[in-house]
Task: inverse folding
């Protein structure tokens, strides 16, 4: 995958020198960029590509992102904070209601909105509903439409498809057809976002890349492996909670985590024959967490039943999906 390399790319390699500077350079820009769109349009993929590292989990399944996670990109001349939001959709239960509230909340308290759509498909009801939400902040917040998945779009349909999406909200400040995975147009989109940032201070330390705790990211990486390896509807009813996270004397980090499912039958599927499926999930999660931490980990996984937790306010609060 072609990597975006900002003009100040060398500064990513010398964050200590940036931190040591007593004053910000003239015209320093900073701000929050809310990345919104319906489920599975590539929001987390775009954020990871811009940050040049993985901070948000990704899977082919819709509703992979459940909480608004911030990814922080700092250079000498700007600090851009991406807010990766859950996909905006019609809620079916309390978990969906929480995810929707988080996504809509991001629209009201941000400097720039990056509205992502799936250019490989015609606009749908979900896109039209988001356009109505965005119409409320037209003129108050800069809105940039990113038509993602251009690599999957027939060249003969480009004009008609881009016009169809632009007609949803003609007031958008800028728009671009691009591919988050192939990299085509991604640099141009990034430059649009930088130029849209207002002048301002740094809100986070220069070496901070996300607002989530490491143990929370570890839980998400475990859930990501469930999404990738279980092919039924089960993953949407999965929650992961890290019970213990500590470094042992030998330097290995011990992580004890529980995968919660809504039915006993789902528990058996995730464990698999003689624990085979759970071992695969654990192996994949361990690789991702070790890549994140740069050290060895010991991952101890358990599977428990939590019936109807997506409609249970107490369970939602326990798993971090409640106010």
Result:
């Amino acid at each position: 995958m072609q990597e975006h390399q900002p003009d100040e790319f060398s500064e990513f390699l010398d964050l200590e020198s940036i931190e040591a500077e007593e004053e910000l350079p003239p015209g320093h820009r900073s701000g929050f960029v809310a990345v919104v769109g319906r489920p599975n349009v590539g929001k987390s993929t775009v954020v990871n590509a811009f940050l040049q590292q993985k901070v948000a989990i990704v899977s082919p399944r819709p509703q992979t992102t459940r909480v608004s996670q911030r990814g922080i990109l700092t250079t000498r001349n700007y600090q851009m904070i991406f807010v990766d939001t859950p996909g905006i959709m019609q809620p079916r239960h309390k978990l969906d209601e929480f995810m929707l509230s988080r996504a809509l909340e991001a629209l009201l308290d941000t400097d720039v909105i990056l509205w992502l759509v799936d250019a490989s498909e015609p606009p749908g009801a979900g896109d039209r509903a988001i356009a109505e939400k965005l119409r409320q902040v037209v003129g108050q917040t800069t809105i940039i439409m990113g038509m993602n998945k251009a690599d999957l779009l027939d060249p003969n349909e480009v004009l008609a498809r881009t016009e169809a999406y632009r007609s949803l909200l003609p007031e958008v400040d800028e728009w671009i057809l691009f591919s988050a995975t192939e990299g085509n147009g991604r640099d141009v989109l990034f430059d649009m976002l930088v130029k849209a940032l207002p002048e301002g201070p740094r809100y986070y330390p220069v070496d901070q890349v996300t607002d989530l705790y490491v143990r929370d990211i570890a839980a998400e990486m475990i859930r990501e492996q469930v999404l990738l390896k279980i092919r039924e509807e089960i993953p949407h009813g999965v929650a992961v909670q890290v019970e213990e996270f500590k470094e042992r004397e030998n330097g290995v980090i011990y992580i004890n985590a529980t995968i919660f499912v809504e039915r006993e039958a789902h528990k058996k599927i995730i464990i698999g024959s003689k624990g085979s499926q759970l071992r695969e999930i654990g192996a994949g999660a361990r690789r991702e967490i070790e890549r994140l931490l740069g050290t060895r980990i010991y991952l101890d996984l358990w599977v428990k039943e939590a019936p109807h937790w997506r409609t249970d306010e107490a369970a939602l609060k326990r798993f971090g999906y409640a106010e």
User: Anything to note?
Assistant: The chain is about 35% helix and 20% strand. Confidence is low (pLDDT under 50) at residues 1-13.
